[in-house]
Design goal:
Blueprint (H helix, E strand, L loop, with lengths): L3 H14 L7 H10 L21 H10 L11 H14 L2 H13 L4 E4 L15 E5 L2 E8 L10 E7 L10 E7 L5 E6 L8 E12 L3 E2 L5 H17 L10 H10 L6 H28 L7 H24 L24 H7 L10 H12 L20
Parallel strand pairs: 1-4
Antiparallel strand pairs: 2-3, 3-7, 4-5, 5-8, 6-7
Helix pairs in contact: 1-3, 2-5, 4-5, 4-6, 6-9, 7-9, 8-9, 9-10, 9-11
């Protein structure tokens, strides 16, 4: 197992052999992956060195000091935070070697085909069907709220393969090529005016069985890997002090004393303390991840992150008064990433409303925390042992 000294030496060897200032960005990232310095805790040959996850910072610090480019993680966040750990845990060797390198480098963007119009927060009630046809599966259905579908080459997909089983048991997990015939992506215009989300219609899409992750009917088990990592990637991101949404409102407070009131001061102080507590909890979560897979703690962080974002953005709009009502552009755009800090206060306020929906609604996360963290009894359910096809819809 590689230690800190070896990782530091390998990073310096990479920089010597591939000076980032004198070569193409993508070529450097590919060389970094091949050197095992992409995500050091991954296996050798898959961008890692079987090193402790906590040692990733050794590599990142050396590369940052040398001015090396990163892989633009905000643009490929779904691939990095959700698809990659699922591929690693449940994919065949062929799947891992085919997808992980272009995913990490950013050559191929990923999206997530989970949510459906008729399932709502009850993901296991999904109705998209996959029917076996020789060595392929033919998939038909509709997905919704799909971030990055308009730029994605690949998608992680849940589909129902046996409607005669209870809803959690008849689901299978696939990798879907977004360029295949039968895949149609339509923009969903949001309250911000943008369309970062999409509807995706699947009409007779043919997926080879080799792109199945996990066994047939075990899609829910595979999906739990994705969902746990998704909530960590949304709510457990490392932030500097006064990072993220808190930064702009603190700058406004310091630079514009004429806007201050006693009431706003008290509220800002309270939110500053909460944001700092969240930051430290995120550090603790990151350290815990170094020892194993994410658990339900990620759900708590995501829940807290959503509420905090919404309260901070509301305070910022109120602090700015009439200026907070201004909005720069309502033109329909299809951005490649969400920029919370590069836009004005009105955008942050509107976009933060989605934080309590995306990545699992706050209501669902409260149930997860109650049952899996606090050990409370689960809510009564009458659909647990009934075949999906017999459920009322």
């Amino acid at each position: 197992m590689a230690d800190a000294a070896e990782l530091r030496a390998r990073t310096r060897d990479l920089l010597t052999a591939h000076p980032p200032a004198g070569m193409d960005r993508t070529a450097f990232l590919r060389a970094r992956f091949d050197a095992g310095l992409a995500w050091v805790h991954y296996p050798r040959g898959l961008g890692g060195l079987d090193a402790p996850r906590a040692l990733q910072s050794v590599v990142d610090t050396e590369l940052a000091a040398a001015g090396a480019p990163d892989n633009d993680p905000r643009r490929i966040g779904i691939g990095l935070g959700m698809a990659a750990p699922t591929l690693l845990a449940h994919g065949s060797d062929e799947v891992k070697h085919r997808f992980l390198r272009p995913l990490w480098v950013g050559d191929e963007v990923w999206c997530q085909l989970f949510s459906e119009p008729g399932a709502g927060s009850d993901l296991a009630a999904l109705a998209t069907r996959a029917v076996r046809d020789g060595d392929d599966w033919i998939v038909t259905g509709q997905k919704v709220w799909t971030s990055s579908a308009h730029t994605a080459r690949w998608a992680i997909l849940l589909a129902r393969t046996d409607p005669g089983l209870p809803k959690h048991q008849g689901i299978t997990y696939f990798v879907c090529d977004m360029t295949d015939p039968g895949v149609e992506v339509r923009p969903l215009r949001q309250i911000t005016g943008e369309a970062e989300f999409n509807e995706v219609f699947l009409t007779g899409v043919r997926i080879p069985d080799r792109h199945r992750l996990g066994a047939v009917g075990e899609g829910w088990r595979v999906a739990r890997t994705t969902l746990m990592n998704e909530r960590v990637s949304i709510g457990g991101r490392r932030q500097p002090r006064e990072g993220g949404m808190l930064g702009p409102v603190c700058r406004t407070w310091r630079e514009r004393p004429e806007l201050r009131t006693h009431d706003l001061h008290q509220r800002l102080l309270a939110l500053w303390v909460e944001a700092e507590a969240a930051r430290l909890a995120g550090e603790r979560l990151a350290q815990g991840l170094a020892a194993g897979m994410p658990g339900p703690e990620g759900s708590a962080m995501k829940l807290f992150f959503a509420r905090l974002h919404q309260e901070i953005s509301a305070l910022e709009v109120e602090l700015l008064g009439t200026e907070g009502l201004l909005y720069d552009d309502w033109t329909l755009r299809r951005p490649e990433l969400v920029d919370f800090t590069g836009r004005e206060a009105g955008y942050r306020y509107l976009r933060a409303k989605g934080n309590s929906i995306e990545g699992g609604t706050s209501e669902v996360l409260l149930n997860i925390i109650a049952e899996r963290v606090l050990g409370l009894p689960s809510e009564p359910r009458d659909d647990k042992d009934i075949a999906w096809k017999d459920l009322a819809r």
